[in-house]
Amino acid sequence: MRALILGAAAALLVAAPALAGPVSLKANPVDIDGAVTLGDVFDGAGSAAGVVVGRRSGPSVVFEAGQLQAMARQAGLDWTNPNGLRRVVVRHAAAAPADAGSPTTAAAPVAASFAPAPRRSAYADRIISRNDIVEVLYEADGLRLTISGRAEGAAAEGQRLAIRNLQSGRIFDAVAVAPGRAVAGPAARTHQFAAR
User: Fold this and answer.
1) In the beta sheet, which residues pair with residue 172?
2) Which of 40, 94, 126, 192 is deepest in the core (most CB within 10 A)?
3) Three-class secondary structure of residue 148 per DSSP
4) How many whole angstroms separate alpha carbon 125 and alpha carbon 143?
């Protein structure tokens, strides 16, 4: 009986993935073929680099950080998410330079959309839910533009959220101001601070 128990324990140890050590998120994650792998997302993924975590059908795909962290853990990787990111955007490798022009500027818009949201206690405070169609107003220097986009997450009034432009497919930051409405640009800062 003792040999049976020891054999089962040894089998569990072999089956469980050994942690490959801490990994870090790439500054500008990209993939080539639409199959997004841990190696596309993390530096230091080692033997888990080929593990597919999702599929990209457009110019980019957005992962919830918590889900990405869980998938990395299942593959034996340890990502602590030290910056408290909410989302990770992975772009097509060919589209990444065209979006920004240089690696340093390419990383800036992506990082800006990952800023942790102000903490809200009640789910009922949300005025925009994930996948809602949102009318976004951009106003600056006398210019006033309105576009429609799809919410990539939920938000309460005054809270930042990522919006996907329905025409271009690009993701940008906005601030929720009412059900189905948000603002972007300089006016977004005013609404965000007013809600605190």
Assistant:
1) 163
2) 40
3) strand
4) 31
**Mean pLDDT of all residues in 65-84:** 88
Query: Are the C-beta atoms of residues 36 and 56 closer than 8 Å to each other?
Result: yes
Domain match, 130 and 172 both? yes
Q: The tokens 């996948």 sit on which residue?
A: 131
CATH code assigned at 177: 2.30.30.760
- Answer yes or no: do 68 and 140 share one domain: no
- Is the pLDDT higher at 34 or at 120? 34
Question: 156-191: per-residue pLDDT in tens?
Answer: 888 999 999 988 889 999 999 988 899 988 877 766
User: Would you say the pTM of this structure is higher than 0.70?
Assistant: no
Q: Six-digit token pair at 115?
A: 């800023």
**Three-state secondary-structure class, residue 106:** helix
Task: Concatenate the DSSP letters of all residues of 3-29 into one string.
Answer: HHHHHHHHHHHHHSPPP--B-EE-SS-
Tokens of 137: 């107003």
Nearest in space to 100 (alpha carbons), one of 158, 60, 154, 153: 60
Domain of residue 163 covers 123-194
6 within a domain of the structure (yes/no)? no
- The single-letter code of the amino acid at 183 is V
Instruction: Name the phi and psi angles at 6, rounded to 5.
Output: -65, -35
